[in-house]
Automatic annotation (TrEMBL):
<feature type="domain" description="DUF4872">
    <location>
        <begin position="155"/>
        <end position="324"/>
    </location>
</feature>
<dbReference type="InterPro" id="IPR032369">
    <property type="entry name" value="DUF4872"/>
</dbReference>
<dbReference type="Pfam" id="PF16169">
    <property type="entry name" value="DUF4872"/>
</dbReference>
<protein>
    <submittedName>
        <fullName>DUF4872 domain-containing protein</fullName>
    </submittedName>
</protein>
<dbReference type="Pfam" id="PF14399">
    <property type="entry name" value="BtrH_N"/>
</dbReference>
<feature type="domain" description="Butirosin biosynthesis protein H N-terminal">
    <location>
        <begin position="14"/>
        <end position="142"/>
    </location>
</feature>
<dbReference type="InterPro" id="IPR026935">
    <property type="entry name" value="BtrH_N"/>
</dbReference>
Length: 327
């Protein structure tokens, strides 16, 4: 058995920030999960639908691994990323840092992991690995998935080799902190402004505040979709509140990041942004509840209410990001 000593195997709410927390604490940087999410400019919105999908997808964060890249840039971390199509080389890329006493991050498809409660394909899942023996890998996942967990080496190999949406080629990564890293406090405003600019100026109508408005226009028709739209509505509500988002489609995490930031930075624009994001987080939870109720009852009037709330959210989040962009 090979185990990295001194790993703080603390599971948090979101998978990528959980893995980042494990790697950074081992480097002596212990930041809260909201701070990791915020410094990584993680908040976003995407409305995703296509003929190949049985039901639309509402996303609340940047694409997988972008948060990690953003955080590494913000904190001046050395991010070493390995990708390969060879399963044998992929294992060497993981075993080498662990053998050297360092945990490693992995991007994989959670469907194949032995301990994972919900069997659904998600190729953007991220875990930290800190040990292995002849049969099992020792991982850190989110608190709802068990925190410190084990999965068979065979299941891990399948998860890393999976192909499909959001997957990577056996991606693994390590983080190294500089001897004199920049203060997280000094990186808060640039990270917020990066997030705000992307949200306010999306390149296509499916993203940012424009994406929320697009979702508001489409939601009332969701019960008329082919297949089983009621099941799709219930699934969407669960994804918004429980699937590693921290609740409210990642808005709770960003709200808490802004609250923590207001304790470090005295700015009326920051306080305004925090107040509006707090309001928005509560409304996103209301939207999820309306979608779930519509799925359970088949009552289209609930979707009309959800659409109205989404229109409000587009305005509120636009105003919040506009205030934050003035920092």
């Amino acid at each position: 058995m090979v185990m990295v000593k001194g790993v703080d195997a603390r599971g948090m709410r979101h998978c990528e920030t959980t893995a980042l927390g494990v790697l950074l604490r081992h480097q002596g940087l212990d930041l809260s999960e909201p701070m990791l999410f915020g410094l990584g400019s993680g908040l976003s919105f995407v409305y995703w639908d296509s003929k190949a999908m049985d039901f639309p997808f509402l996303g609340g964060r940047v694409k997988p691994f972008e948060l990690t890249r953003n955080l590494a840039t913000a904190l001046g971390l050395d991010l070493t990323v390995e990708e390969t199509t060879s399963a044998r080389k992929a294992w060497r890329n993981v075993a080498a840092p662990i053998d050297a006493g360092r945990p490693v991050g992995l991007q994989l498809d959670s469907y194949h992991l032995d301990y994972f409660g919900t069997k659904a394909h998600f190729g953007g899942h991220v875990v930290a690995m800190y040990g292995y023996d002849d049969r099992n890998a020792y991982l850190v996942d989110t608190a709802p998935q068990g925190g410190a967990v084990t999965t068979s080496l065979a299941s891990l190999a399948d998860a890393r080799a999976a192909r499909g949406p959001m997957t990577a080629r056996h991606r693994s990564f390590t983080l190294t902190a500089p001897d004199d890293p920049p203060s997280p406090r000094d990186r808060i405003i640039p990270a917020i402004k990066t997030c705000a600019d992307a949200f306010l100026n999306p390149p296509i109508a499916n993203l940012g505040h424009r994406g929320i408005r697009k979702a508001a226009e489409r939601v009332p028709k969701w019960l008329r979709r082919d297949g089983d739209p009621r099941e799709g509505l219930c699934r969407t509500a669960v994804l918004m509140e429980q699937a590693g988002t921290g609740g409210a489609l990642f808005r709770n995490l960003y709200r808490d990041f802004l609250a923590e930031s207001t304790e470090l930075i005295n700015s009326p624009h920051l306080r305004t942004g925090h107040t509006l994001c707090t309001e928005a987080a509560a409304l996103w939870t209301q939207v999820a509840a309306l979608l779930a109720s519509a799925g359970e009852s088949g009552d289209a009037r609930l979707l009309t209410q959800a659409a109205s709330t989404l229109h409000d959210l587009a305005r509120i989040e636009h105003d919040a990001m506009r205030a934050l962009s003035r920092l």
